[in-house]
Prior knowledge:
Elements: H1 15-20, E1 31-37, E2 44-46, E3 54-56, H2 58-70, E4 75-80, H3 98-108, E5 114-119, E6 132-134, E7 137-139, H4 140-157, E8 161-164, H5 171-181, E9 188-195, H6 202-207, H7 228-240, E10 244-248, H8 254-263, E11 268-272, H9 274-285, H10 291-305, E12 309-312, H11 315-323
Parallel strand pairs: 1-3, 1-4, 1-12, 4-5, 5-8, 8-9, 9-10, 10-11, 11-12
Antiparallel strand pairs: 2-3, 6-7
Helix pairs in contact: 2-3, 3-4, 4-5, 5-7, 8-10
Amino acid sequence: MSFPTHRGRRLRRNEGLRGLVRETRLSVAGLIYPMFVCPGQKVRQEVSSMPGVFQQSADQIVEECREVESLGIPGVILFGLPEKKDPRGISSIAADGVVQRAIEAIRKARLKLLVITDVCLCEYTDHGHCGVIEDGEVANDATLDILAEQAVSHARAGADIVAPSDMMDGRVGVIREALDEHKFENISILAYAAKYSSGFYGPFREAAQSTPQFGDRRGYQMDPANAREALREVEMDLDEGADMVMVKPALPYLDIIRRVRDEFDVPVAAYNVSGEYSMVKAAVEKGWLDEQRVVREILTGIQRAGAEIILTYHAKDAARWLRA
């Protein structure tokens, strides 16, 4: 019998021992902070369902980015709230669009941050869907050129990475081709490869003002019951030129993160989404959870599952705790 020769508790006696043998070491280096850009100046409006998260004009985005940089967080991902919406989301490709202006402001401030941009139409269309509507349906192929133009406009403004989140088939290939054609061959693509149709996106839709005005997104986002399909989606995006892939949401799909990590030798990201964040914040407000302990556990679990990159609204708090 191994007991009492082998006692697992020997290595758990104190924090020094636990830290010495810890298998997964959470690091600020893998965190990305999501931000919401809106029109105007000196605008900073808290999202009611996401305490501590704001819709901000470009000048305020820069100020928060200074804080993000000071905490050692390597990058941000930008989502846009345009002044006007239309059926095709055309404002998303404008050189003076909200995201484009924010990128330029960050660059002008000489911040050493990676700037990632969400490439999608849902924030920019008056119907709230991620693509162009034809005959009452989201039209896949008619959407691709607009997504490609949006990605090029972000690259032209100074983005380091574009992240298509729309889940249209073939969009990675079209975006890669457009970037290369416009001499942006060094701009990376982080594909939302396995993006599930999830109930955890609710607070985000308030933050990004992107709630669909009819129907839902189940026709293009993935069915939560499917796992093998996720591997096919990842493989297709990589074949089309994605440099990194993402699983979204994170917590209900830790098994998917692990399967993607085991199957593909590329950087894997996971999005700790708005609903996951807001649940923690609500429980903390009620006094039901220890925020620091729970957030550390959540982010460690996501990393342990196989994600090197974690997009999370907890990033600033986590960075402070990890540096303490």
